[in-house]
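Reading a protein record of the kind used here takes little practice once its layout is understood. An example of such a record is reproduced below.
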Amino acid sequence: MDIFSVFALCGGLAFFLYGMSVMSNSLEKMAGGKLERILKRMTSNPFKSLLLGTGITVAIQSSSAVTVMLVGLVNSGVMDLSQTIGVIMGSNIGTTTTAWIISLSGIQSNNVWVKLLKPESFSPVLAMIGIVMIMGSKKQRRRDIGRVLVGFAILMYGMELMKTAVDPLSDIPEFRTILTAFSNPLLGVLVGTVFTAIIQSSSASVGILQALAMTGSITFGAAIPIIMGQNIGTCVTALLSSIGVTRNAKRVAVVHISFNIIGTTICLILFYGSNAIFSFSFIEKPISAVGVAFCHSIFNLLTTALLLPFSRQLEELACTMIKAETKEESFAFLDPLLLRTPSVAINECAAMTDKMAQVAHRNLLLSIEQISQYSPEREAEIFAGEDKLDIYEDKLGSYLVSISQKGLSEANSREVSRLLHSIGDFERIGDHALNLQDSARELHDKELKFSNAALSELDILTLAITDILDKAFTCYLQDDHNLAVQVEPLEETVDALIEEIRLRHIERLQNGTCTIQLGFVLNDLLGNFERVSDHCSNIAVCVIEASTGTMDTHAYLDKIKHGDGNFSAYLKQNLNKYRLPEVR
């Protein structure tokens, strides 16, 4: 084995890791927000969690991605620690599928149909199909499927490179001497742990072990402790992801590593204890790629079977190791770890945007109440709500910009754009609520009172504003297209009311029944109400665009105002409902 074989080994590992990354990321993108929605439905039933953890890991081919996702979801308060334990165990089982696929490379037969089962035989065809789908399809989902196929082909090419590079090792006596040292269980576990920790992929680590196994140089006695150590080494990714997160999220990483260390310890004792009694004959026999996959699966299944009944004890162990702070722990607004799975991160942003909408809605209603009945306590609540809205806008905006820099599907890109527009409208509604509060305080501090006519007109306007707020925010939170189409006619009604109130106010000024000072306050109120209704219109249009898949706001508004019978009917109904009292 020369220096070029080392180069080939490094290149093969690089291709393997890159192929695994491309395949995993594309599978995650295809899954969209389904992964998070499934995980959120986790119950305290450990068996259900186990099956879902296995299924999700098989689907995205990355136990590390699942574990990091769990850390992020717990850190964001979406999941509880107890819900993650079964998923972690299931992810260890799900990750064994990669080893079984790779083991097909060891099939030896001259039969053409049997040869077709070997990944190196069919992966070039998959690569060609994948490239055609990436370059020839306009649909994002098909391009993602193409990337999965190309990623798998690159992974298998890397495996072949590694297998070819290590093949000469079987003829080197020194290499065989080194391998015999791995028969020491503790050294084997250490080697498997360290190597997997370095490359941060148990699938790649097992793949390299399978490539070495194909040379016929590795025995069962050397391979089994290495396989056990690989499961511990893969916990490094979870440990790194737990840096800078809440204590409860750190416990997810502790559960992961505790599960693997305890499982490895028990399996080592059972295996070598049984070997001391029964003297297993296969210990010194060479292990094949299929043997590596078999041992990998048996180890993970046995570990899960032994420890699944003790899920609660694992949780208590994690809580004991990572104790809660005596003071209340700060809440992580949105976890950067979720950026590794953009679809999950987008769903969390949508959930946070819903909370922001509720705060903005309440703040505006509180400020309207201040106009007619001023309260210092309500004022304090409005200021607290405004502070929350500023935090929401800052954090969500920055987070969504970070997500937009990831490789997103077309649907995810539209959702990010929708959320960015929405948080802008919610923040501006919060600002107008603050402006209304300032006007209410001016009326209170200066003991100013509107005329009865002006109060009657404001009562009608505030009813219309409350109505448009309720419709806009309800249609947004419930994604109700039918309710959303009722907002724009109401916005036109509010504009007509404001214009009429302004004209009547000018007449009162001319008649001397209203003062200039009250006029300034009224004008501020009307201006803020008008802008609030505009933002409500924007929110409703976002809902309509999301349901229709279009993003041309101006075209939509122009269409409904010039030729939509429903718009005219709703407008007429609203104008009759919110008619100003006759001038006396």
User: Anything to note?
Assistant: The domain at 336-577 is CATH 1.20.58.220 (Methane Monooxygenase Hydroxylase; Chain G, domain 1). Residues 484 and 540 are 5 Å apart (CA to CA). The chain has 26 helices and no strands.
